[in-house]
Structure formats: structure tokens, C-alpha cells
Amino acid sequence: MNRMLNLVLAGITSFGLAFSAHAEDYITLASTTSTENSGLFDAILPKFEDATGIEVRVVAVGTGQAFEIARRGDADSLLVHDTAGEQRFVENGFASERADVMYNDFVLIGPADDPANIREAESAAEAFAAIAEAEAPFTSRGDDSGTNRAELRLWKSAGVEPDGDWYRELGSGMGPTLNTAAAMDAYVMSDRATWVAFGNPQNLTLLFEGDEVLFNQYGSLLLSEEKHPHLKHELARQWHNWLISKEGQQAIADFKVDGQQLFFPNAK
Amino acid sequence: MENNAFYVALSLLLNLDTSLFQIVVLSLQVSLLAVVIAAMLGFPLGAAVALWRFPGRGGVIVVLNALMGLPPVVAGLMVYLLLSRAGPLGEWGLLFTPGAMIIAQVVLVLPILAALSRQKVEELLGEYREQFMSLGMSRGRMMPTLLWDARFALLTILLAGFGRASAEVGAVMMVGGNIDGVTRVMTTAIVLETGKGNLPLALGLGIVLLTLVMLINAGAYLVGELTRRRTG
Q1: Which of A74, A173, A200 comes nearest B85 by C-beta?
Q2: In-domain check, residue B14
Q3: In 10 A of CB B173, how many CB atoms?
């Protein structure tokens, strides 16, 4: 019995040691799956850590959940892509400051034979209308993420109420949604970064891109000191300022996958 | 060849990639510690329910049995709301740390250990009752004897608990946040790689996880057999 107790104690001590070795200077950043899955953070976080000694721990979820994590005071900083939602977040007093950081764009992906013929579309609205007209299978994130919110706005602008057997709401992240679309030969809207880094396209290919309404703006938010005095506001400000500084913007521009730049810095 | 999951798994193991090593070590630390804590609470609890008669005992047994099927994301959500800054234990600052993952897994494993050990101890009690009576033993004294004599069955129960802890993803994803180098474990890494469309790598990680679980089970089996032989 005593031996077992010793074993347990040894286990707990080694566990404690393993984690006390971590840096004290860190912030928790709530952000989106698109930034994580594309590999952007792997490229820019080491540069920030070199410059400031601050480790950034990323919790990558959908934009809706990221807002909720920040609202409850469980993250020190927020980097998401839903400008309207971000502005509301500031107005409601949960964040004290918001800044444009970068943009990427959404692209329309679909089966190579393109049954709705969206390759020929003049605008994103036209492409969405053509998919609805053909009732071709379309997989939607359906998870209240930034991408999902943008997709719903685009259906609205196309004058379509997406409904029916052809429209599948998955309730999944971007990657799983692409996996499902690949298996179903369905159309899907993705951010370009996740699409380019995606490893399982099967029969899917990029069919429509370039319309300005498909631009996807990312913003960084500083959270309210009043509502959440326990957060690491000083460190979070350093991160926020670095993102929109010359060095940070350069690091974002330098991030490439297969020689292709995926995020375009545009801090003012 | 590079697209073959077994090849990926093998090269992951042979190269002993440091980030993979870290993920494997964290997975084992979290799940083993969760099972040890759950056992220290669950086995005495199970034995106590088996030994004592009290009002509402039937209800306790039904609840314990039902909680064996608690969905991991529900456990995760409950622990998330408890540990969130806006929640009652927010002061502890445990959310998105390995500590939170251990708590969530204890919640998942505890009912399994308590419910199954309750059943085993009750069976043994039936066999031993007359002997205990003739010795005039109190219930408190019976408990260690019964638990010790049930040790081989408890080892199997412990493995069932470890299997549940190491296999689940919903709870650790929610309370750990799958943070690279801090709270990323085998199962959340598999979800992430699947999301990136790296299916061979995801499956390769799955094979590594299975191999580890298999080794632990083989080790437990050997220990059980050896002690059984020695103690007859």
C-alpha cells in the first residue's frame, strides 16, 4: 500500500515539475480555426516571442465561440474575422479597442465538373444564385463562425433563402466541412488559407474567387479592463500593438504556403 | 508510400519527433493521473455503497450506473462552466491548463470505477459474509480486506477507466483548448490533423495512440499474471 502511495506522489511531483517549467509570461489568445489550420500562428508567434519574450497560447475555435470565451473573461486577447460582430462587442463594453490587422479572402470550392456552372459567374451573388438554382449540394459550416456569418450574408445578397435537401448545415469547423464536401462532391465556401493548406481535396477544385465582397477582414481586440480586471492587459496590449506594428505586419506578409501569400496585412 | 497511415505511424515513432513526444507524454500524464485520482475516490466510494445500507442507496446505485454513460462533451461543458472566469471556480485560473483536463477526465472516469467496484465488492461480500460475522468485524474493517481481495478485478476496472480517459476528445478539447505545446493531447491532435485534411497523419497518430494503450494493457496483464502466480 505504501509503495503505491509513493508511486502516486512521485507521479504528482513529476507532473508539477513538467508544468512549472513553462514561461510565466504568456497570454491566452482566442482565435479562429482558419488562422490556426493554415499555419499562420506557427509562422508569426515565434517572431513575437523572440521580440518580447511573451508566449501566446492559442485556443482556436469558431468566431462565435471565441467571442463567448472572451466575454466570460477566459482569454486575454481576441483575433477574429467578423467586423460587424467585433464592433458590437466594443459597443457592448466587452472590448476597449479594435484594430484592423489583415485580410484574406473567401473562395468558392466545388466539384471539378461544376454542375451549377459557377466558373462563368460575374459576381459572388451570381455564383450563389446559380448553386441554389441548380439545387447542387452545398455544405455550410452552420456553426456561427465568421465564415458561416459571411456565407449567410452572401446568400442574402443573392436573394436566396438557402433551404432544402441540397443545403447541408454541418455544424463543423472549416477543415471537417471541406472533408465532408470532398466526400459528397458538394460546393463549399472556404477561406483561402484553409483551402490552400488543406490536404484532402479529392475531386474538389477552386471555382470562383476575386469578388470584393469575398474579402475577409481580421481584427484584433483588447478586452475590457473594467469587466475583467484579472486579465493580463499589459501583455495583451504588447501583442495587439505588435500585430499592427511594422514588424508584425511584415511577419504576416512573409507567411506563405506553397509560395502563395495567404494573409494581407492592412493595419492603419 | 508517404500516404500510408502505417508508414506515417512508424516514421512518427522511429523519428521520435519532439512535439509528438511532448503530446504523448502529456496524454499519458493527464489520463494516468486522472485515473489514479478517480481510483482513490471511486474505489472507496464503490466499496462503501456496497457495504452500508442507507436510505436512497438504490438511487445512488442507479445514478452511478447511469453516469458511466455521461457524454464527454457534457462533462467538458460542466467543467468549463465551473472553471470559467465567470464561473464559481474561476478564481483558480485553471481553464485551458492540463489541470482542467485532469478534472474533466476524473468526472468521466469516477462513475465507472465506483459503479463497477461496487458490484465486485458486493459479490465478494456475499462470499465472505459468514466469515466476517464469525470474526465480528466492523464494516470499516471489512472494506480494505474486500478491496484487496478484489484487486485483480479492480485492475481490469482501472484499465476500463484508463481506456475511457485516453480515448475521449470532447471534454479535453473544451476545457483544454488544444493549445499547441500546452494542452494538446493525442486525441485533440487527431481532430486537428483531420480538420487540416492530413488524413494519413491523423490515422498515424491514431495508430500510435492504440499502440500505447495496447502496451499499457499488456503491462497490466503481465503484472496481474505474475502476482497471481506468486500469491497463488
Answers
A1: A74
A2: no
A3: 23
Whether residue A58 and residue B95 make contact (CB cut-off 8 A), yes or no, is no
Q: Does A72 touch chain B (CB under 8 A)?
A: yes
Does any domain span residue B100?
yes
| Residue among B29, B87, B179 whose CB faces A57 most closely | B179
pLDDT tens track for A2-31: 555 454 445 544 554 444 444 569 999 999
Q: Kind and range of the H or E element at A98?
A: strand A95-111
Confidence of residue A200 (pLDDT cuts 50, 70, 90): very high
- Domain A106-214: assigned CATH number: 3.40.190.10
**B232 in A contact zone (CB under 8 Å):** no
Q: Please tell me the pTM assigned to this model.
A: 0.86
Model confidence pLDDT, tens digit, residues A105-121: 999 999 999 999 999 99
**Residue ranges per structural domain of chain A:** 25-104+215-265, 106-214
Q: In this complex, which of B36, B84, B85 lies closest to A11 when CB atoms are compared?
A: B36
- Residue B101 forms part of a structural domain: yes
- For the structural domain made of A25-104+215-265, what CATH number should be given? 3.40.190.10
Query: Cβ of B79 under 8 Å from any chain A Cβ?
Result: no
Mean pLDDT check: name the lowest of A143-147, B28-32, B63-67, B98-102: A143-147
Same fold, A25-104+215-265 and A106-214: yes
| Contact with chain B for residue A257, Cβ under 8 A | no
User: Could you give the CA distance from residue A86 to residue A77 in angstroms, rounded to a whole number?
Assistant: 13
CATH number, domain containing residue B146: 1.10.3720.10
Cβ-defined contact of B195 to A174 (cutoff 8 Å):
yes
Note whether residue B218 is domain-resident: no
Report the amino acid identity of residue B23. I
* Rounded distance between C-alpha atoms, residue B162 and residue B36, angstroms: 9
Q: What is the value of ipTM here, to two decimals? A: 0.81
* Per-residue model confidence as pLDDT tens digits over B123-144: 999 999 999 999 998 999 999 9
Distance of CA B47 to the CA centre of its chain: 18
- Confirm if B178 and B184 have CB atoms less than 8 A apart: yes
**What domain count does chain B have?**
1
The pLDDT of residue A23 is 52
From the CA of A147, how many Å to the nearest CA of chain B?
15
Distance from CA of B26 to the nearest CA of A (A): 9
